Amino acid sequence: MSHVTLKSKEGKEFKAYYAKGPSASARGIVLIQEIFGINQAMRELADQWAAKGYHVICPDLFWRQEAGLELDPTDEKQFARGYELMQGMKGDETMADLESARAWLAQESGHDKIAAIGYCMGGMLSVKAACETPVKCAVSYYGVNLDTLLENAPANCAPMLLHVAGKDRFVPPEAREKVIQLAAAHAQVTAHVYEHCDHAFSRPGGQHYDAQAAKQAEERSHTFLAQHLA
């Protein structure tokens, strides 16, 4: 488990957390951060996915604004700072940085059997990655703004698995219902709703962590990854 240096499309350097899988031929995951940077929770998730058998790279997507930032979601000011940074991101640059991470991992592992997995903001970006980058599949945990993204998802996008929190305080009920309907109508999208869960139910040590739901989502994710990264 260590930090590695990636190069952006402009040739500038930025950091990513890298958790190596148990075997050289392990499948790959581009792990996409929440709005709190590559903090302890994201590093723990990377390590957990690596322990399950994957090479995992988690790029710092805030580096263009403030590199190496780690925020505490329980601190109101830091939460607000994370939201501000998310608002300051430029979509094309972010997707290019994710592609830089995917390409680095493909070169490092010697294959392109790589998925995107994201949480919160990363849950939204993983859906975008499935539509816009060469990842083989994507898993979205309680992604935001998915109703808008799925409306425009191409028919040939990479397969997606959505974990939807039934009581997500950041997703209005009408938007959540729209996501479920759009997922049902799209051949490449599967959605599971965790009815009694709030946002971030899979965040290690988080306020709304739900061990049972997190375990169920993880099992579904492994099955999905095994199918699409075979």
Offer a quick outline of the entry.
The chain has 230 residues and is of the alpha/beta class. The protein has eight helices and eight strands, in the order βββαβαααβαβαβαβα.
Task: Report on the architecture of this protein.
By secondary structure, the protein is an alpha/beta fold. The protein has a single domain (2-228), classed as Rossmann fold, CATH 3.40.50.1820. It is 42% helix and 21% strand. The chain contains eight helices and eight strands. An eight-stranded mixed beta sheet has the order 1-2-4-3-5-6-7-8, with helices on both faces. The chain is globular, with a radius of gyration of 16 Å. The relative contact order is 0.13.
CATH architectural label? 3-Layer(aba) Sandwich
Main beta-sheet annotation: 8 strands, mixed
Shape category: globular
SSE-based structural type:
alpha/beta
